[in-house]
Specification:
The protein has helices at about 10-20, 30-45, 70-75, 80-95, 120-130, 145-150, 170-185, 305-320, 375-390, 420-430, 430-440, 455-465, 470-475, 480, 490-500, 505-525, and strands at about 20-30, 50, 65-70, 100-110, 140, 155-170, 185-190, 190-200, 205-210, 215-225, 240-255, 265, 275-280, 285, 290, 330-340, 355-360, 365-370. The protein has about 525 residues and is of the alpha+beta class. This is FAD-dependent oxidoreductase.
Length: about 525
């Protein structure tokens, strides 16, 4: 089983043709919401195209907390439906995308005099389990800390409540959804920016777009447009809703500096907000902040000095023996959540609802808000709205997709163990056959001790629409997050593996390296004022 090449050469050959066709649906936005809409529409047999002005998952969908979770905090805020939907979707995705979405155990330590106490938390978790349809929580005495979280602060610890959510690589999830959509005939173009809608008799009938690589303008025609552009969504002016961009930032540390075998959830001592310390991709993550994003939305979001100190203070409060400092931070990332609100902007960011909202106008359906975990439900709802504008009956109101591979017994090289096989199946889906062919050519050598094979870099260049070096190092792989200085030391090896695949001259390679290192330093490293 193989997938078609999806690379720079494919784009050059297909771009003009794809942008000159008549489409049933054009989706604007290449994050998880747009990808989900594209797949749901392709399952209906519609002719559909997705355009993204940057890269796949360039915005919020590559900068999340990586959690596929039911939203325990939302339950505490009274958002029962959101919590129920999230918990049930988490369970579905755990079963459907094993290897890509994995269980993540959580521990919530309770200290004397702090709220919530162990009994209240245990009762809340019972409701949480009921909504998910599966019992997963358990309460332990303080003595269990020695094996649940050995480095945890012991003074005045009274109990620990444990429960389960899930974790993923958010970009790989988007790529898997897009892969499934393309297998059904949908198309995806990145680096295509929407300039303006095209109106005909007060109805949107297409889009004016520009290829950002060549500067060439096109008129794209479609019966309906689905706008899923996150914080860049253009809301109808007549509507009373507004988008409130909220930034969430994270610190990534080498695992040895703060080794945790599960996520630790607790309240920050400064403002009582929920924060997490959790393992991911062989590293340890501290997150997240939640504050109004005042930076330019046309630039990548970046962490601010106060956020770095806030997150380090949280970790040092719970793990005092770790004595973490700025020097322990390997990388950072910040994502901007598209929160839809009618309420006052002085409402605390963490209290703002994560519910989504859908707007309709002739020829266009727009959506904002929502969560990574519930993307399938959101996509199905948007497609139902689009079907009304297309005057078509849906094949099924319950949009579903079988993610199980048709051939379970792949012939993996003996050097690849069971855990890595599961990861590769989860990450690459039907593309595993092509990846195995690359293993035969390149061997099974891993990169710098990462859970990443050299063949995966070549696969990304050939089959996953890599157009810039940061596409490869920050999103198709996480080299830029997981290695010191964004993986600078590996660039000569990456050049050897990927330059020919990307059809870049030596001059283009140097330009890409310069561009990538500038992006990493500005948006994925520490703020300049903390580096002095």
């Amino acid at each position: 089983m193989h997938i078609a090449p999806w690379n720079h050469q494919w784009r050059k050959q297909q771009l003009s043709d794809l942008l000159s066709q008549q489409w049933d649906l054009v989706v604007v936005g290449g994050g998880i919401t747009g990808a989900g809409i594209l797949l749901a529409a392709a399952q209906q047999g519609w002719r559909c195209l997705l355009v993204e002005q940057q890269d796949i998952a360039w915005g919020t969908s590559s900068r999340s907390s990586k959690m596929v979770h039911g939203g325990l905090r939302y339950l505490a805020q009274g958002h029962w439906r959101l919590t129920r939907d999230s918990a049930q979707q988490r369970q579905y995705l755990l079963q459907a995308m094993h290897g890509l979405i994995e269980p993540l155990p959580f521990a919530y330590p309770h200290y004397k005099g702090e709220f919530p106490g162990p009994c209240i938390m245990s009762a809340t978790l019972k409701v949480y389990d009921t909504l998910a349809g599966q019992r997963q929580h358990r309460q332990y005495s303080h003595t269990a800390a020695d094996y649940l979280a050995p480095a945890l602060k012991q003074q005045q610890l009274t109990a620990i409540n444990c429960f389960q959510d899930a974790i993923t690589d958010d970009v790989r999830l988007v790529l898997r959804v897009l892969q499934a959509a393309r297998a059904l005939g949908a198309e995806v173009l990145t680096q295509v920016q929407v300039q303006a809608p095209i109106y005909q008799q007060q109805r949107i009938v297409g889009l004016q777009v520009v290829d950002q690589l060549s500067g060439q303008a096109y008129s794209l025609t479609s019966q309906v447009v689905a706008q899923a552009a996150g914080v860049w969504t253009d809301l109808p002016q007549s509507d009373n809703y507004q988008l409130r961009p909220l930034r969430g930032s994270h610190l990534l540390l080498p695992y040895w500096r703060l080794p945790v075998s599960q996520a630790i959830s607790f309240r920050h001592p400064q403002d009582q907000r929920s924060v997490f310390v959790f393992p991911w991709a062989g590293a340890t993550i501290i997150g997240t902040t939640d504050l109004d994003h005042q930076q330019d939305l046309q630039q990548e979001a970046r962490i601010e000095a106060a956020e770095c100190l806030y997150l380090l203070a949280a970790a040092n409060h719970l793990f005092p023996e770790a004595r973490l400092t700025i020097n322990d931070v390997r990388s950072t990332w910040s994502g901007v959540r598209p929160i839809v609100t009618k309420q006052r902007q002085d409402q605390a960011p963490s209290a703002a609802s994560r519910e989504h909202h859908i707007w309709q106008e002739p020829g266009r359906v727009s959506v904002a808000g929502g969560k990574l975990t519930t993307y399938r439900l959101l996509a199905a709802e948007v497609v139902q709205h689009c079907a009304l504008q297309l005057t078509r009956h849906l094949k099924s109101k319950s949009i579903d997709q079988s993610w199980q591979l048709a051939i379970p017994d792949w012939n993996f090289p003996a050097a690849i163990g069971w855990q890595q096989r599961q990861r590769l199946l989860g990450y690459y889906g039907q593309g595993v056959g092509d990846l195995l062919a690359l293993f035969q050519q390149l061997g099974t050598e891993q990169l710098a001790g990462l859970p990443l094979y050299q063949a995966e870099l070549v696969f990304a260049c050939r089959y996953e629409q890599v157009l810039q070096l940061d596409d490869l190092l920050l999103r198709r792989t996480r080299i830029g997050l997981l290695l010191a200085e964004g993986g600078r030391a590996l660039l000569p090896l990456i050049k050897t593996l990927c330059q020919a695949e990307l059809e870049w001259s030596d001059q283009q390679w140097q330009q890409q390296v310069k561009r990538y290192l500038e992006i990493w330093q500005r948006y994925y490293s520490l703020p300049e004022e903390l580096l002095v």
